[in-house]
């Protein structure tokens, strides 16, 4: 069952990724092209397959470009937060003691903040845009990775093969990188996959609340914000971006859950 | 239970201190100026702005501002709003009720629906129903709350006209319970959706875990009825981990309330918070932040206490 | 003895696993248990002995993949025999915990950690004997006293976490015997306990058996325990009964080569009693149930293996002497030496 959902997720994500890389090149519209003669076209009207928005821009192209941005932001934020999380979690798990206590205090405190607060205040620091979002999402998301890596490293630290290598005089770096890390790649991949999903959601929230990708650049969250005003006449403007987010995030979550089973069968049976 | 109550309290103080410093720095260092609202008024001069700045206490070095603020915080004077000069605590308590009603209703709904889904799935592991529940909870967790808000509004309010699309009661109308409930319905459901998914996954795991335990086999070997096994043996044990989740849900619900209140123009703390961020109304923003941090830490202490009462294993080891 | 209270005939249990071949855990096991008799089922792990016990009580996981066949006729007091394997759920529940009870291996995990000892004993009595809570609670105290726990009045209010392993196993026994069952199935009841506590629990079981007269199916891999408690030994190997004999007969002159190795280091009944020996190890492994060898399943590990004889067809259980059955083609030759 899990395998099937995982491959379903894989298909969803690959198709979406492929569509948003290739289709914009083939469609005869530019995501920023305004056409005041054809505003609020409903889906399936002529050459605008999914209709147009309040200033006549093609919805399909904007969705695809927005999704592309979302996926890129998700991937970059994942890379950054995985790196940070592995570094901090690896160190605290390995050395324990004060390092660990300090980090855990910080993590606890950050978890006290409502996520949205962090995202919004952090967002106001930089020029709103994709890079800033990657930065702030990573700042919020690294803790999850850090916790997982910390836990795993601590669990493995006492195992025979690690103790044996240590007894043979291996350096800390060698033990961390050559012995411990390879053994927890699975767990890291799982959190990372789920983090891509989370990052995409966070981008949507931030852009929806107006602090993310700025108009006129298309973004799924911002499109939802725009659509809010036209809910009565044109609900599809709100429904479509949500569906695209859903496809991406559901797909990634399916993959993550499936991988979790592959990595830790015991956990999988319960989950 | 190596943690004594005192060390817990100490950890809580450290956490709150970190939250207060981080929050303060983030807010004050972020670009934007609380004076922006005045600067645009026609005829406003630099001197006048300076006076306002002085009255807001913004003309002293940041560490001093922090200390002044913390001192006030400790002695119950949380400052006054930069916008309307109301005391921060008055404003917070003025908006708290609406949020509690919304979040309370939502968490009741979520706990009930999620726990039922989880129990259903755990008792029929691998069945079609179980698979559907699992997929449903992934889907619920994968879609931004506000999208559900928009879709529900567009369906139930705009298209069908059954329910109002926002506010806590009909504008200009007199208060009536029916009117209030109609307004509460959509936002509460939207806010509950995400938590329902979390509850359902969590409950399913907790119950499945208990079902695999030896003592459940013992209960069956005793010839007890399935009903008795389910309620007395399985759910009693599965309840323990669920207490933890209840405590952890608090910050999540607050984050959710922030967005839901925006979508449904619900006059609660969440919207107040977003507004205060936008206007750089530091006292109000910091007040809400500290208020929720205190609630969150108390929540986790309360959770531990509840857990200790509910779990005989802990009760015993403390003796 | 007036005929067996339990007769198991051709009991077979198969687990289906998703995709792979089915796993035959028990293949055609047959044996009898007389009233008041103690039958020890002996074998290595995965020999099918625990699965047999679970199947009798209908406790195997009810997944679609589990298939139980055969017959297990059980005679309740003054009634006609019922087939345990064919009973509907409700009727089976009425038997479990009342006419047949079970004590499990690990007392640390077999009691519910959030219910008091009293509640856990009382609920059996309330379910089966229709006692009120108050009566059941009083009876629980009495049972705790009978299983040799001091301060039973205090212990009823305790939670399992407050008791030691030995005490918890006594509680398990109190639960099992509360309704005065005719048959008690004890699945390695002493394995998880300290040696001294093991002896106490065994003595307790024997004492209670003398007092209450129930029959016991004792599942174990500890030969010393077998010698102390059993009237009859059933040896199981890879899902089959390979030898079934009265205890003295089985220990003094085992016929099946497997039993011979099993009891080898403990040649006589008295020596076994004296030394409380564990099972000696036998070279090789118990075969994977999915790929059991052709012919006699023990032949790859057997010292008396004869090509063409032992690996051809599966030997059947034959009667060697009165009350002594063995599954081996060459048992006569081997016995002659």
TrEMBL record, chain A:
Entry's Gene Ontology cellular component terms: plasma membrane
Transmembrane feature ranges: 71-95, 102-123, 129-149, 180-201, 236-256
Pfam families registered for this protein in UniProt: BPD_transp_1 (PF00528), OppC_N (PF12911)
Domain ABC transmembrane type-1 positions: 67-256
Subcellular compartments: Cell membrane
InterPro entries named among the record's database cross-references: BP-dependent_transpt_permease, MetI-like, MetI-like_sf, OppC_N
Keywords on record: Cell membrane, Membrane, Peptide transport, Protein transport, Transmembrane, Transmembrane helix, Transport
Membrane topology: Multi-pass membrane protein
Example GO BP: peptide transport
Homology family: Belongs to the binding-protein-dependent transport system permease family.
Protein name in UniProt: ABC transporter permease
TrEMBL record, chain B:
Family annotation (Pfam families): BPD_transp_1, BPD_transp_1_N
GO cellular component: plasma membrane
The keyword Membrane appears for this protein: yes
Residue ranges of every copy of the ABC transmembrane type-1 domain listed in the record: 96-307
Keyword terms: Cell membrane, Membrane, Transmembrane, Transmembrane helix, Transport
Compartments where located: Cell membrane
Domain of life of the native organism: Bacteria
Keyword Transmembrane helix: yes
Signal peptide: none
Membrane-protein topology: Multi-pass membrane protein
Alphabetical list of InterPro entries matching this protein: BPD_transp_1_N, MetI-like, MetI-like_sf
Spans traversing the lipid bilayer: 12-30, 102-123, 135-160, 180-199, 238-264, 284-310
GO biological process: transmembrane transport
Protein family (similarity comment): Belongs to the binding-protein-dependent transport system permease family.
The protein's name in its UniProt record: ABC transporter permease
The species this protein was found in: Gluconacetobacter liquefaciens (Acetobacter liquefaciens)
UniProtKB/TrEMBL annotation, chain C:
Keyword entries, A-Z: ATP-binding, Cell membrane, Membrane, Nucleotide-binding, Transport
Signal peptide (UniProt feature, chain positions): none
Membrane topology: Peripheral membrane protein
Domain ABC transporter: start-end pairs: 8-263
Gene Ontology biological process terms, A to Z: peptide transport; transmembrane transport
Compartmental location: Cell inner membrane
Gene Ontology MF terms in the entry: ATP binding; ATP hydrolysis activity
Predominant place of localization: membrane
CDD domains documented for this protein: ABC_NikE_OppD_transporters
InterPro entries xrefs: AAA+_ATPase, ABC_Ni/Peptide_Import, ABC_transporter-like_ATP-bd, ABC_transporter-like_CS, Oligopep_ABC_C, P-loop_NTPase
Listed GO CC annotations: plasma membrane
Pfam families the UniProt entry points to: ABC_tran, oligo_HPY
Source taxon at top rank: Bacteria
Family, as annotated: Belongs to the ABC transporter superfamily.
Name of the featured protein: ABC transporter ATP-binding protein
Source species: Gluconacetobacter liquefaciens
